[in-house]
Design a protein that fits this description.
Number of strands: 16
Shape: globular
Strand content: 25-35%
CATH architecture: 3-Layer(aba) Sandwich
Radius of gyration: 20 Å
Order of helices and strands: HEHHHEEEEEEHEHEEEEEEHEHHHE
CATH class: Alpha Beta
Largest sheet: 6 strands, mixed
Number of helices: 10
Distance between the termini: 53 Å
């Protein structure tokens, strides 16, 4: 058993089945044994997955160019700055250094008070711990995690209540299982309080309410050595765990929705012809992967605060 498995198994034996939110939070963010907190680097060829920054360095160049245009829209304010949520190993820090760049993470650092500029994230919201909800006889129950015979298993919990019930009543897709990402909504509240004037750029894979029918069993996946797995309960702390982002609740926050599009559309709008030409000459396959592989899968939500 992994160290996190031992911790979670003891919690279950002491207090009964756990919410999946607790399971996922410990598996990813336990300060010593969590997947994102261990010394091993999860990114890149030797890790478990790639992000856009690792696939093609031009990604940082294009994002910086896009942010310059947003800065122009704000009138070149001297207070302009960029904050990145979930910066990973900091690969965007060089590309965004000119903007007074600051990196924060789920449990590291905090959004500044009354900032002006851009809050940027790439694959941040998909890694936030979620609750799993099951539709039963017209109602909703919490799906939980138990432990027996040395293995973690799903089990049915009590009916949902409070904020989870409110979310389910408003956003529940027509599916047997779905995720409720209350943490994403809490981050949106923090962003609303922090961003006095500027933009939010959220890049991730996900869906709107209209598209949720494509995932009748939910969207949870785990990743290890560049291979996706349906079993998200195995080897906690040793695998990445993700859930597709529900963009509709994020769009319903008190920020103006400027645009919702594919990452390819956003990058094509941001880039100059010579930037694409240089990237194509250096590594055409990587650029194609960025634009036509990841670029068609990932979505970009652009929000605005103030004028």
């Amino acid at each position: 058993m992994t160290p996190i498995a031992e911790i979670l198994a003891q919690e279950i034996q002491a207090g009964g089945p756990l919410t999946f939110h607790r399971f996922m939070s410990a598996a990813l963010y336990h300060p010593e044994h969590g997947y994102y907190r261990k010394p091993r680097d999860p990114f890149g060829r030797g890790g478990d997955f790639f992000t856009a920054e690792q696939v093609q360095p031009v990604f940082g160049i294009l994002i910086a160019q896009f942010i310059r245009r947003l800065r122009e829209e704000l009138g070149e304010s001297p207070e302009f700055r960029v904050v990145e949520l979930g910066a990973g190993r900091g690969e965007m820090s060089v590309a965004l250094a000119e903007f007074g760049y600051t990196a924060i993470d789920v449990d590291r650092g905090a959004l500044p008070d009354a900032m002006e500029g851009v809050i940027f994230s790439n694959e941040f919201f998909d890694a936030l711990p979620v609750h799993v909800v099951k539709r039963v006889d017209g109602g909703f129950i919490d799906r939980r995690v138990t432990f027996r015979d040395g293995t973690f298993h799903w089990c049915d919990g009590p009916p949902v209540s409070g904020a989870i019930a409110e979310y389910a009543q408003q956003y529940a897709p027509d599916a047997e299982l779905f995720e409720v990402n209350l943490d994403a909504l809490e981050w949106m509240k923090l962003i609303q309080r922090s961003l006095r004037r500027g933009f939010v750029i959220a890049i991730d894979y996900g869906y709107t309410n209209r598209e949720a029918m494509r995932f009748p069993q939910g969207t949870l996946m785990s990743y290890r050595r560049h291979t996706a797995h349906d079993d998200v309960l195995a080897d906690p702390g040793e695998r990445d765990i993700t859930a597709h982002v529900a963009f509709t609740p994020m769009m319903d926050c008190r920020l103006e929705v400027v645009r919702f599009e594919t990452m390819m559309q956003m990058l094509m709008r941001a880039g100059e012809a010579d930037q694409f030409a240089a990237a194509m000459a250096a590594n055409p396959q990587q650029l194609k992967t960025l634009l036509f592989g990841m670029g068609e899968t990932f979505r970009v939500l652009l929000l605005r605060a103030g004028k």
